[in-house]
From TrEMBL:
Pfam families: Glycos_transf_1 (PF00534). This is Glycosyl transferase family 1 domain-containing protein. It comes from Thalassotalea marina. Gene3D superfamilies: Glycogen Phosphorylase B. Transmembrane segments: none annotated.
Length: 401
């Protein structure tokens, strides 16, 4: 006898048409949950909240119920002459969303006979809404952590995060289940809050949706050897120095053929600073900086490349960037610049055609080989499909009700 579908309320700030890869986890859970007996009702913010940071390439299925409410943005709505007090952004700038989200959620819970609550961080306000609803309704609540709280791995922001840490303690104490995307992140929380965290936690990794690539085909640039890095660069954790060092060595190896090399840095922050750095390394002719683009265009740029690059420094040891799953779904060689035994390193070493290293010499040799040999790789990545990850979530939901 078929299972009668039950409704889950999904509380997520990051949801289409918001741009960026942060929407993918919630979107794919919502897309596939109905396959496993759960009907999603998504509660998110009004489209205007995202300003220009929108991407309409992610189409929603008609059976996904989406409700949007006004979100007060402290940096805009509480600003005077373009300036605001920093304390108004604690624990995050979107705390005002809770005032419209909670009443709407209570209505949705009654309307759809919601059986479980689900909220997702890194916007702490989502978890605050989940916490309030859990207290009001006594419904089971799953708190999903796409990232650990930043102050737990980045000491530079610890002193600024007192409010976030206060609410995080409430989440850990009161959520029915905690979900992390890596074992390292779960271990971090167990170290902070004690082993009781392990008793109520699960790990559901990120993944890829193979359907995202169905409408795309590879287009090669004439006589170019293209390296692709998608996503922001930071001064802490995602600096391109090692990659630039490797390119300088590659230039010495290839000689005049280096004119065929192009590094495509898409969506990079600190572009001006890194342009100067590329000039200092004498590789600026090979480095192209591009602004953030819609998700499907990013995937197209990925497919058009000859080598894919990820930079994941020590500060991000407990995290795995979502793009690495998309990379693994290709047959292209991959360079991962990350410390040994980081969460990313452990994942990628299980697959062929991937170099995980922080040594410029090793990377230059790998790139030179890719330049001359054009090898493609077959990777068994079925278990990384978003549908498989959603089944894990559905099983967790079943255990809560």
């Amino acid at each position: 006898m078929a299972k009668v579908p039950q409704h889950i309320l999904m509380i997520a700030f990051d949801f289409p048409p918001r741009g960026g890869s942060g929407v993918e986890r919630t979107l794919k859970f919502a897309r596939f949950l109905s396959t496993f007996g759960w009907k999603p009702v998504v509660l998110t913010v009004n489209e205007s909240t995202h300003g220009d940071f929108v991407d309409h390439s992610n189409q929603l299925e008609n059976d996904i119920i989406v409700e949007r409410t006004f979100c007060l943005d402290a940096s805009r709505h509480l600003a005077f002459r373009g300036r605001h007090f920093e304390f108004t952004k604690k624990p995050d700038r979107y705390w005002g969303w809770s005032f419209t989200a909670v009443p709407k959620a209570m209505s949705l819970i009654k309307q759809y006979d919601i059986k479980c609550l689900w909220s997702t961080y890194p916007v702490m306000t989502s978890h605050i809404i989940g916490y309030v609803l859990n207290k009001l309704t006594k419904l089971p609540w799953i708190a999903d952590y796409r990232d650990p709280l930043q102050c737990y791995y980045d000491e530079l922001v610890y002193h600024k995060s007192k409010a976030a840490r206060f609410f995080d303690k409430l989440v850990v104490k009161n959520a029915t289940k905690l979900v992390f995307v890596t074992n390292n992140a779960l271990s971090l929380y167990a170290d902070i809050y004690g082993e009781r965290v392990l008793e109520k936690s699960a790990v559901i990794e990120n993944g890829f949706d193979s359907k995202n690539l169905e409408a795309l085909s590879r287009t090669l640039e004439n006589d170019k050897f293209v390296l692709f890095h998608g996503g922001s660069l930071y001064e802490t954790g995602r600096q391109p120095q090692v990659l630039f060092d490797a390119l300088k060595l590659l230039k010495a190896k290839l000689g005049n053929d280096f004119d065929k090399v192009k590094l495509n840095l898409l969506g990079a922050h600190n572009q001006q600073f890194n342009k100067v750095r590329a000039e200092q390394y004498e590789i600026s002719q090979a480095v192209e900086f591009k602004p953030q683009q819609p998700y499907q265009q990013c995937l197209q740029a990925m497919l058009n490349a000859d080598v894919l690059v990820v930079i994941q420094g020590q500060v991000f040891d407990n995290q795995i960037p979502g793009k690495i799953y998309e990379y693994l779904n290709t047959d292209l060689p991959i360079v991962v610049i990350t410390p040994n035994n980081s969460a990313t390193d452990v994942l990628v070493k299980a697959y062929p055609g991937v170099l995980s290293s922080e040594e410029p010499t090793e990377i230059a040799v790998f790139l030179a080989s890719a330049f001359t040999e054009k090898i493609r790789y077959v990777r068994d990545t079925k278990k990384l499909e978003r549908r498989e990850r959603t089944q894990e979530l559905a099983q967790l939901l079943d255990s809560c009700v």
